[in-house]
Write a structure and sequence with these properties.
CATH superfamily of the largest domain: Glycogen Phosphorylase B
Oligomer: single chain
Strand order of the largest sheet: 5-4-3-6-7-8
Shape: globular
Number of domains: 3
Strand content: 5-15%
Length: about 450
Amino acid sequence: HVAPEETEHYKSDEKALGVGRKEASIQDDLGKADVVFSVGPRIQRHYARFLRQHKVAHHIFLPEPSKVFSDANVSFGEEGDVRKPERVILSIGRVLNVERLKGHDLAAGGVDKAALRLDHLYTLRLRVRGIDENDFKESKRILDEKLRSGRVKPTLLPYGTQKEIRRDMENCHLVLMPSRAEPFGLVGLEAIAAGVPVLISEHSGLAELIEELSDSLEQPTFRHCIVKMKGNDATTDEEKWAERIEDVIKNARSEFEEARAFKEKLLASKYWEESHQKFLQACGITVHTPRASIPASTPAEKPDQRSLIETLEEGESCSQLEQPSLTQTVTPTAPIPAGKQVDTPRKPQTDDMKHSAVKAEEKATDMTDGDESSKRVEKRPLLAQSGRAPATKSPTRLLQQEEIELEDLAVTEETRLSPAGEEQGETGETQTVGDRACCPRCPHCTCSVL
């Protein structure tokens, strides 16, 4: 984005002597690069021959205006009955040591001459943004030397944010970029994006871009914002700037209208997109696919998760539809019908469960009281209800819960009445282990083992 051979001559003799070293340093870096992007056509042309000889890929990069400026809503505005309306002219950039490079002497001299010619019509003000507080006095002295008529007093402003600079543009009538050498000229581009009238030096990369875009966007009259300069004759160039400043101030309303029209065409063209895509590709970043071509995305499921969900659904429906009744009997030694099996994992019977079953048998032979039998009969519906696991529980949690119930309530479960029903319960007779009826949770319990 810099070309020392073009810019250093306007700084100082010492800077001019160091041009060769700076250019060589930049070329050393360029020769080691895989790809080079030059900001604007002027810089691209400056390094084209060197990069071509070293067979380095070389592309142009065109900056996109910041959204801070493109969102600005600038218009000329209506004026009341004012005898000498005020016109504000804005220049951006530090002054000290670069006044000739950035053309602050041309801006101040041009504004002073225009103020003399328009003295009976307008009051001109010059604002300069980007002054370091340590350079204030010296910067003001440089400007005052060119403002000899005394009709214009410069207002020097410190460095500012983009929002502060946009506010400056919204409150001015003209932005100046009078650089004698400017690799690109971002300040001028931001003014164009804001919709403010602007005058820019022909010795800038932005001037070349405007000449090309004004034709392609079918607004060739906008190129009159480019000021032709000789570069060496300060007096002649100062006079040219004075003429152009006077012309814009006298036709401010139409200048704002043309600036707004060019802004809209410029932003709609998206002239920067192709260079940005090349830059992303060179960095190994894939350009985004248009939104319309992207298929609707669905949450990804792992294969084992999908199969687990299907198994749970089948298991829940089976346990709900095929729950055995309270009076259903199954011979302990007979195999469980295939239709009664649930697709959930079964754990082998643990030692604790076996121990609980043996204790239940011993206690069953000692229980002969009819009242105790009737109490166990009353408990049966509650036990059966607790044995039905909610459909939302997982197989693992269901099995753990049943193991706890079997262990805590083994006595009641294992001393259930025979198919004879209430008569046997009334006589106090209990079943032996061999002909005991199956529990309501038969598909999940291990009574057939006993």
